[in-house]
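The material for today's practical consists of a large collection of protein records. Getting from the letters to the tokens is the skill we practise here. To make this concrete, we reproduce a full record directly below:
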Amino acid sequence: MKLFEHQDTYSYFNNLRNEIKSDIQSLSDAQILNTNFEDLIEYYYSKFYIESLTLYLDKKTSSLEQSKLEKYNPFYRMGLREQQFFLVDSCKVSYSIPFSGSSHLLHLEPTQRILSTFEIDGFGNLNNKDVLPTILYSLNIELSILEKEENPQQYIDSLFNREFKSYLEMIQYVNNDIYSYNNSLKDIIKDALTTRKNKANSFSNLINKLNIPLKVNPNALSTASIPLIAKKEIKSFPEQAKPSKNWYISDKDYLYIKNIISQACTSFEHSPAACQKLNEEELRDMLLANLNTHYNSTATGETFSKKGKTDIRIQFENKSAYIAECKIWHGISQFKDAITQLFSYTTWRDIKTSLIIFNKNIKDFSSITNKIQEELKNNSLQTKILEISKNEWQCTFKKSSESQELIELHVIICDISI
């Protein structure tokens, strides 16, 4: 097997840059507008960052075995009836050299290189995640040469260092190209995200003419520097039947509301004893009060109202443009029922929703978050999912298997167990 000959590093890294841009362009408007910009940069940086190659020569192992070595016959070209090569006894020294980084990188041809071939016997442990992979390399030394050496081991070590020196230089050249790529990675990601966000903002500014005007209370604590601006309603087209308006809250308002809920849940988790005794409706009322402190009341009442025992709504023209449902965790089956119940309340297209789960009894909190994550990923109606944190997700669902209507679903689980 030959190293450093499969693909040049310029092409390899250029393909990765194109993949980054393609990934970011595939983000939905909701994802790019509702997710913290710096968090997106860090996410894509961690996804496309390349670990440089590191060889652990001090951890290498070796073994010896008797072998044969093919030697050139110097009498071959003298017109004598001689073979071109003949075999001599030899000692084969096989090395296993641990390394970190992708083995694929060892096949790349760096921009700076040594004009030579770099043979190895292969790789070891590539499919074993519990140990480092290894480079398998060997030297075949004529036995008569070793027999003449006073210190055969020193001779073998010296030969290995001399022969393998060029391999180490080539690995360093590959690492130099990796360093250049990693060094420019954040700028590439930031530029691609900025382009995508500008495109989403441009479209959002257009459709926000049907945005429900929510007025933030100026005395409320800010969750983020997001201006909420009242939008004008688009009039009906002249001389045609008045179309049904698909009122909705904007993506920015939705993000602001989710931040309020997230901060409220965090405060609940800091004082779980006070929340333990509360039922679903009482927990809902605490969230409802928290939400309404951030928005000014309208002439008809508060921005957020309650309907039923556990849900929170923004009502506009007798329809709900935002619905949040509060539930206490009673297992994954009831979690799925809660999603179905929440979707049954929706009447408008592009509706924004939240499902707030409270864990009061389960000590192993991660077991719940893992079950929720698995259910959201595998739900047949789910079209997109973004993990905001270990206990919070943003998803896009179809309302039903037959429907093309999409519902934005924000899921957060609050741990108030003691």
